[in-house]
Amino acid sequence: MFEINPLSEALGAEVVGLDLAKPLGDDVFATVHQAHLAHQVLVFRDQQLTPEQHIAFSKRFGALSGHVFDQFLLPDYPEILKVSNKKKEDGEFAGLPQAGRRWHSDLAYTATPSLGSLLYALEIPPEGGDTLFNNMYRAYEALSDDTKSRIEGLKAEFLLGSGRKFYTDAERPALTAEQLAKVPPVHHPIVRTHPETGRKALYVSQAHTVRILDMPEAESEALLAELTEHSVQPEFVYRHKWRLHDLVFWDNRCCMHIAEPPPPAYGRHMHRTTVVGDRPY
Ligand SMILES: [Fe+2]
Fold first, then answer.
1. In the chain, domain spans
2. What pLDDT sits at residue 169?
3. Which of 62, 176, 238, 239 would disulfide-bridge 275, Cβ 3.0–4.6 Å?
């Protein structure tokens, strides 16, 4: 038996007493799947997972994608992206550094953004390095009727690094020309309907949403800023303080997240798998 305990008023639940290293029976999987849809972020405590087991559990939810920063994929396991602030002996980062420093939803800059991501904590700092998640259903539902009708049907351009204008961190590697060519701008609705729950969620972010289509630039900037600010108010946010061997599985279709930098003195090393999702509608 295992427990599912809500973690905040906004979203998120922890799953205690479930071993993901073993294949889940269909009934248990259905319970986990429903809990994920209901809570949007699931924190599986105390997991001891090999890369194969991490991948096998992730694949129950769909096909996995690699990442445009392909230099940080785990050797022999291209489904796993290493996220790390640690450096190897040659001075190169051991994983993607400075990941997720702006509110975003993973792979929103691709034609078929991620359904969800599963991040596994292999090494965490004694303090700091929290990840915050927000509830984009609630953010949408709390908008005024005027704003809801104003944004109905609007689409935006999404681009990795969004506009690259936000990323000034010298430590984050630049995309090579070959990598850049893989991530051209894409267009998505800024309110999307979750394909499984049927609920509407806001879909804009600091990191990837560049501009609203068919709108003057100043108006678009103001509206994006207003929607982002609205959606990350404390009442919509859960702050996750990592424990070693947490596996956190969030729903990118109805949440954003942001990573706070760990103190530089401490290592933080994680493995991420990313489940491919549908084209937003
Ligand atoms: Fe992310």
1. 3-276
2. 53
3. 62
Q: Which residues are catalytic?
A: 104, 106, 257, 272
Which two tokens mark 145? 């009727």
| Alpha carbons 117 and 103: distance in angstroms, whole number | 15
Task: Tell me how far the alpha carbon of residue 248 lies from the centroid of ligand 1, in angstroms.
Answer: 12
What is the percent of the chain where pLDDT is above 70?
96
Distance from the CA of 86 to the center of ligand 1, in angstroms? 18
Q: What is the pLDDT of residues 204-251, one digit of tens each?
A: 988 899 999 999 999 999 999 999 999 999 999 999 999 999 999 999
Give the dihedral sign, CA 118/38/10/5.
negative
**What pLDDT score does 198 carry?**
98
Which tokens sit at 215?
């709108």
Contact 213, 204 (CB under 8 A): no
Mean pLDDT of the chain: 93
The CATH class given to the 3-276 domain equals alpha beta
Q: Nearest 5°: phi and psi at 221? A: -60, -45
